[in-house]
Each structure stands twice: as C-alpha cells, then as structure tokens.
C-alpha cells in the first residue's frame, strides 16, 4: 500500500507541519472560478428551440445593432435580454432613377382607357346604321332599349375617331345627319367631335368627287355640333358651296363664324372671295348681336360697295328673315308661320337648297329692339335713297310682326 503524502512529510520533518505554498493556493482559486462559471452557464435560462415549420422573419431595410440581433434559432417568443435600444432613424429612400433611365409614363387617351377589344369594321358599320335608323322622337323605345343603344354608341366611340369615320364612310349625307342627331340625344356631351369628324370626312370626299349630291345635311351637322374648331373647314369649302358655307358660319354658336365671314368680304386674296355677297347677307343675320358684323356692314354702306341685289336680301334678313339650309314646303311651316313670307332658293350648279323664314315668335322685345337699332345704324351709314327705302321697309316689318317697336325714321335728306 502506498504511503500517504502527509505521513511522509511528518516522518521527514520531525516538527510542525510546513505551510502550503503560494502556488497551490492560486491553482485552487482558478479551479473554483472555472467551476462557478460552468455552473452559471449550465443552469442559466435558455429560449425554446425554433420549430421546423416556422416562417422566416421578414427582411428589414433598417440595420439593427449586433447586440440586439436575435439568435438565428430564436422563435416568435424570443425576448431580448435587455430593454430595447432607442429607435434609430430610417435611412432616406433611394433617389429616383435619372430621367433617361426612368420609363416614360404618359396618360392614355380617354377612348383607349375604356376601349373594348378592336371591333371589326363591318360590325361597326352595322351598329352605326342601326343607330341612324332610330326614331328617338317617337318615344317608342323602352328604357332598356335606350340603355342598349347608348352602350352600343359608347362602344363605337371607344374605337376612336378614325375607326368611327371609317364606319360612316359609306353612309349618305342624310344618314350621317340622322346618326348625328341620335348621337347627340344619346350622348350629348361626348358625341359632337365624332359627328363633326364624320361630316368633315364626307364633305372632303364630296368636294373631290364628280358625282354631285346635296351635302346640305353635312353642313347642318357642322353648324349643330361644331364650334371654333370647325370654322376653317367650313370656310375652305366656300369656293364650292358658297351659300351652305356662309349660312353654316352664321349659324355657329357664339358667333364663332363671324371672323371668317368678315375675311370673305374684305380680303381680296381670300380663296372664298367669290362668296362676298353671300357673306354680306350672312353678316346681316348676326349684325343685331355682333358689333363686328354690324361695323363691316356700316363701312361697306358708307363706301357704297354693296350691290343693290345684295341689299335686297340684306334688308329682308334685317327685317326678320333667317337663312336655313335645306328645303321647306308651305305645308311644313309652323302653325304661327302659316301663310308667312317664306323664300326659297335652289342653285343647280352647286346643288344647294336653302330658304329664309321670319322667326318673330321666338324673339323677345329686347331682341326686336336690337334689330331695329342695327337698321337705324345702317340708315345713317348709307346715302343711297333706294337702299334707305329697303331698310325702312325692314324696320316696318319688325314693328308689324314682332313685339311692339317704333321704327326709326330715316335722316332727313339735305
């Protein structure tokens, strides 16, 4: 049996036992510290292990300090071992790409935004023909039928103006006018541009065709649906249809055609100069509410440059007649115009039909007086006694058929 170390030390020393060395004490302290740390690591609380079917956390663009980053195996119930840090500011968003690299974004046209798949041309022609045949004035359509025709029109317009014009290219002027009238009834705020585009295309084709037909219905479409954007087109056609053009310009809303009529009268280089007399008569129709039109007539009267044949029609218009494109028989006259002084014209060489008719019943007292004032200004401007007589007759016509108004006498002859 091996001897015990202490016994060996006692036998060899013979006195009191020696004190332990300093090195032995240091080793013991280190071993105790290691044991304490190991116990702490062994018994400290651990988070539950992540389950195998757990979804990964969403990525974040904001960096988190490394001391607060969850362990890779942390689950949903992981709790930070210390309070959360003070939030850090989010980094600014990345700048947009340069204009050269950024994709160009432009708004789509309204028609394309609601466009149905491309409609075959023949289908479009069938639908415009059906719309042209509608009798909306008769009131024979149910609300469901009206809704169906309105939807059909919306689908046609969604194809765009070019396709719409192509669908109407085989229609007659009268059919295009009926179509335009029904379109205005079904979609008054949207259909005007499509109707004028169809009429303009048909007029352009007719101007180049040797086959003469009455295009009056197309001019009526322009004057009813057009505005300033149609003026140049109407004016350009005055060389071929001088009366249709000038009447349509006079009947445009807001006197939009007056500048064109003035050019026809005064510009010797205007291609429509041959329509001068027709333009003078059209200016007389709007002189009561257009200072510019009245000023032109006054200057022409002072210079004595208005032919007497033109004065006859000018006086008639100032006295209450209004020009309209088309024809009207006595049996078609309104009840309040029965037996009235209707005048009509037919020009064979240009296939133009138009008429004039007094319209007193629709004028107010103020409008009657405005016409009387226009006549008075022209009486003062002209020195031709024959012309003065025509104007005095026009004034009397207003006084007798319109609201009561006292005709202005002609200035005394010197």
Question: Mind sketching the topology for me?
Answer:
Blueprint lengths: L4 H9 L8 H22 L66 H4 L7 H12 L10 H16 L2 H7 L5 H14 L5 H16 L8 H10 L5 H6 L5 H10 L6 H9 L9 H11 L4 H12 L5 H11 L2 E5 L17 E5 L4 E7 L6 H17 L3 H17 L13
Sum up the structure in keywords:
4% strand, three-stranded antiparallel sheet, mainly alpha, 49% helix, elongated, disordered N terminus
Percentage of residues in DSSP E strands:
under 5%
Q: What shape does the CA trace take?
A: elongated
Q: Note poorly predicted spans.
A: 1-20, 47-116, 402-414
Main sheet summary: 3 strands, antiparallel
Q: What is the overall pLDDT average?
A: 76
The percent range for helix content is 40-55%
Task: State the end-to-end CA separation.
Answer: 172 Å
Structural class: mainly alpha
Task: Give the spatial strand order of the biggest sheet.
Answer: 1-3-2
Order of helices and strands: HHHHHHHHHHHHHHHEEEHH
Per DSSP, the total helix count is 17
Radius of gyration: 48 Å
How many strand elements? 3
